[in-house]
Request: fold
Amino acid sequence: MGEVRDGTRTRDSIVEAARTLTVATGWDSVRMGSVARTAGVSRQTVYNEFGSKAGLAEALARREIDRFVGDVRALLHTHGDDVRAAAHATISHTLTEAAGDPLIKAVLTSDQGGSDELLPYLTTRQELVLTEATEVLLEWADTVLPGADRAAVAFATDSVVRLVISHIILPGAPVEQTAAALADLAVYLLLHAVTLRSYAD
Reply:
């Protein structure tokens, strides 16, 4: 057990070092040797743990995404069956956190001539953001809208997640304005899912 905990601590310290360096210099400038020095481990240890810079990118992105998904799950369930309040609080929090998060800022403002290879992990990789965030929303919808059409709910939640991601990458209005508009859209789509089920019955 001690070895497992030590291994987990080593991985965590490497991921944290990668985060620190990304915030400071941008992901394109991060080198595995620098990560190793910052984490206080050997360069070989970093490669042993993650295999490549892409592997480290995925681990870093997954940690950030898990944190966001955990926040979403907690916020959704603090408003009872008030769908709009839950949607607005969750969307507003996500947009605000993304706008102020130094890691995401570092990624989105990195050199346009670089590879930006961390960005896809943080945004559009289906197995990370879309699937996990949508699953949390589906779980919540099953609780607050048990009679809704499942396929329509799946479409609604997937659409909302994609729109939130797009507004993180390219904001088009102040956070509260965007959050209010997206919350209204979420309510419309989810209530439409309820209506579809009613017609089917």
